[in-house]
Design brief:
The structure is a homotetramer.
Chain A lengths: L15 H5 L3 H11 L1 E8 L2 E8 L1 H7 L4 E7 L8 H18 L11 E5 L10 H10 L8 E4 L4 H4 L3 H12 L3 E9 L9 E5 L18 H4 L3 E11 H23 L25 H4 L7 H11 L7 E5 L2 H21 L2
Parallel strand pairs in A: 4-5, 4-6, 6-8
Antiparallel strand pairs in A: 1-2, 2-3, 3-7, 7-8, 8-9
Chain lengths: ~350, ~350, ~350, ~350
């Protein structure tokens, strides 16, 4: 029995810099000052955010230089066939565009790596994708596919595994599929992130997993990530923030504080500037702290216990299966036209 | 694809009445007034709580009349062989005692039902137990074993399934093994609850799962439950409570409020009476609310979204496997001596 | 670990009486004398044999009174989409016809039982079917579905399990899906047998599995069987028979015996009357024995060892999956029109 | 869906040269003339055959130069704990001896490869071994472990996969575990073969799988093989041979031919010289052919059909599990003492 190495590649558009610059002007400022270019688009029900990080941006936000495309269907449910179809279509379009500069030859190989731990439901999306590809009647003969398992199980670094195959196979492209952690529980299983920067641990200490990237392997690496878990302290801080903002917004609207509110179905605009001091009578000075300050407080309080917990949708198994099917279908369509 | 019916049989010793009466005197009062008898014991590292609920108690706390034995090893970790051994030993002792009044005949059958959904890791403990029993070299010929799956998968009520088998097999005893939800994230995968009351939905509306109990089936039903998940709103309220109490305790101790505290490793006695008003300057009047009031606020805020989330240990798969092995071993030893 | 109960429900059209009466006149004689009515049809590439056994027939051939419909695509391969589609279509047509006399009410239930052992590939077709039905987006709410596992695993007779559910659910119809043994290796995974007689052990001694049938349960039982294995002695006798007939046919044709023949691609008509004495110079008097006499000799020789062996297609896993998909699809279409 | 590459590495001691030289004198002759040295030993109930093939021997029998150790417990059954223990002990002793010349350093790695197809029961022994090793509480940190799957599933040669890892990891030793085909159905799941020659396709045409050997990888490769299947034509020829020899032996003994014999439990010495002409009255000249001539006849007759069939024990899943446990245990003990 070994430690679990949960993938911790947060979504780019949850970086503080990206989140905090919401208006057009703020974005221009962001771009000029920090080397990060953000652009929002829609394709039907799919919200797409393109983030371009250059060398300067990499220093600023600790996210690697390159292109990040985030596709979300905020209202997606398991039964929403239309939503999944729109998501697959938009993913295919953007996947094509991301790779259109590659000049394919007949015997070029594509190495597809399904990361993650098959026995932990929300981490199993990579292995499930490989299973789905295996079960196809016709497998594209460009594909070489593996689910390497996690380091604890195999006795070997996943990054080294991929490097070993890349050296020998010399693929034209490596595609890495992985479950991600998100900071926003509302985005769980409703978002796909594409990036040409590969898989890379953040600037945090202690993470010894090797990077899987062009820089390490000499081969372009595209990562497809689906957020399937939130850490417990993140969820808690997130929840407190949402609760406080909901009440502040309501108080602002109604012009009257109330000690015990029923919020039910009413949902405030979470990005609006709010005067949090309106609710200090009930929630104290704490209400005016930033979300990050509160999260730090929770992390300190629960250092020992809650960091071992993960938060995931109750129907995680069905979501994982849907995404494995969707990505398998998208990759097959894309490859058939190369 | 069908809805998931997560088992919601909360632990008896998380009932407010049980929790709030901690001292010997309080317990006596509780017993006299409400028909609930609580007794704490230790068996090595295993903390054991016996709760006896009579007819009066059932009305008071909505927990069914009968005996509840909760066994916990608060410091249990996955690598802690000694802890698991002590837990298995204590479980066996108490399991024997719970069934000592049964007069076994040679051809008596014991129906073992592993509840839960195999594809959701923290809910898979029942099916995994049945797998473990199947893989034994020697299966006790008293045992009849099934993992019925969840209603959505089979098109049929689990309770009806058990009733159908009970009618035909006429077992002397039914043992039902199930994953439970807990209110205390610190107890996840560190506790086992034994009860002779079977499996029974709470007083909550909308739960159409049938009870599995002596009253329904005419056969004694023993339930073995292991808490493997916490609901997200429960976790959040729990976390806020713990955070506020930690700070209040610290403030009380140091005699000085501080706006941004480092709490790190210091852990307060969570049951101590605390003057929460000490921290209202920072946290507002809200700090003086009861945990339940705060939880209700979170539940209202997140009605739509977070109720679909579950919180579970990151290494849930290993925990599940450990408990399936432990219970399989305990049941086999117990049955071999009948 | 327990004994394996491989299903031994041979195909009806492999009964000697059915096999030996090939011409129209022979069939009429068979019908009059023995109460067995045989009719061959074709539906595109699907060969269909209808066998009707009455009370007299049951005594004659030891096959239960009732209707048996065998559908075969002799040239079926794993890649043959058209073949599988034709087979599904013909199966649906015949399945409808077999049940057209049932008058369905709104809340009638259909109990679907997937027999067999999930861990033995060629025996896993029943459990795989149930898995396939589970994974459907929309499950017909008439369906109640279980894969009961094998007696050794559960400590309980499969027949008793089905009886228990039937008593409680009171279904309008029970559908049992199972892997079968065949005598003809060429039919492995290329044939489906439908029958309204349920599952019933032959007249052989020692088989203690309970019958699953209308007579036992008071509910109509339709069995869908797919031959996926041959017993080793059957295969050997079959092979020797085919070899001897091939050579005899060739000798007859060429008019000259030859001591060491190359038979390669040439395939004789296996049903033609052949003068086996032509090959006694090489193969001895033995060549003139009946296939059954030779099989008995092999069974005696290998009593101990080879009876523990089974013969199955190398790609059994893919075949099983194909049939689980086909039957799941057929049942769903059929039920949607009730 | 892809073609299945069943491993075809026959057991060394089924080579004609090894089989036919049974006496001490014959063995000496074999050694001198053909470069093959054969030695039989016993360790309790375990029969051990050491075969040493040199360069000359490799040319003679088409088996690669090196050492082959075959361990068998002819009377092994699934319930035979003593037999499995003796087999594990003898395997460990011989495994140690085979590797005693390796001088281990602290950070040396051992690459363990579990070959085979997880979804085909008798081919799953390699993947099951890797699963067993994963599930151990303590995994030796020398081990790097993978079950690469089959070429059709991954789009990549298994040999290339191992080569890729070997190049990068630079292990001190590669251990390859695989299911084998045998010619003797009586040896199925009762034999383990150790060899330092790795995995190498025979001289047969059409097999494009790469060799996994010291010569290819520059690293010592030890293969552990367990025979779990027989090809259908091999089984048939084997069965006919056994039947004919049984009858001939009996006739010789009783001195009287009989047209329809009951052979039941009596088992002849299969290696004894027999006068097969005794049974030509019944079985013709064919009885005097060599087994190989008969097998060729069957292979020609069944070229199309039966070559797609495999013969395997009915309880293959339990056998596979037993061997995965045994080898996992043996490897762990061995590595713990390095």
């Amino acid at each position: 029995m070994q430690n679990l190495n949960w993938e911790r590649s947060d979504l780019i558009d949850e970086s503080d810099e990206v989140v905090l610059h919401q208006t057009r002007e703020q974005k221009q400022t962001l771009e000029q000052s920090s080397g990060i270019q953000v652009e929002d688009r829609n394709a039907g029900r799919v919200k797409i955010t393109d983030v371009q990080v250059n060398g300067e941006g990499e220093k600023q936000i600790g996210k690697k230089q390159g292109q990040y495309i985030t596709l979300s269907v905020p209202t997606l449910t398991l039964e929403d066939k239309d939503g999944f179809q729109q998501l697959e279509k938009a993913l295919l379009t953007n996947f094509k565009k991301l790779h259109e500069s590659i000049a394919w030859k007949d015997d070029d190989k594509i190495l597809i790596i399904g990361l993650g731990n098959r026995t932990i439901t929300p981490d199993a999306i990579g292995p499930y994708l490989i299973d789905h590809l295996h079960s196809l009647e016709q497998i594209d003969d460009k594909f070489v596919m593996y689910a390497p398992g996690v380091t604890g199980q195999t006795g070997y670094e996943t990054g080294e595994f991929v490097a070993a195959l890349a050296e020998r196979i010399k693929p034209k492209l490596i595609i890495v599929v992985d479950a991600l952690a998100t900071r926003a529980s509302s985005r769980l299983c409703k978002t796909v992130q594409l990036t040409d920067t590969g898989i890379h641990p953040g600037s945090g200490v202690g993470n010894q997993r090797q990077e899987i990237s062009f820089e390490m392997l000499g081969v372009p690496v595209t990562a497809i990530g689906i957020p399937t878990v939130v850490d417990a302290p993140v969820l808690i801080a997130d929840a407190v923030e949402l609760m406080l903002r909901s009440i502040a917004a309501r108080v602002a609207e109604r012009g009257k504080p109330s000690s015990k509110l029923s919020l039910s179905s009413w949902q405030p605009d979470t990005n609006k500037e709010l005067d949090m001091s309106l609710i200090t009578p009930i929630f104290g000075e704490w209400a005016t702290w930033s979300k990050e300050e509160r999260q730090q407080l929770f992390e300190e309080t629960f250092a020992a216990s809650h960091s071992q917990l993960m938060v995931t949708p109750k129907e995680a198994d069905y979501w994982i299966d849907k995404y494995a099917t969707l990505i398998s279908s998208m990759l097959t369509k894309w490859a058939s036209e190369l």
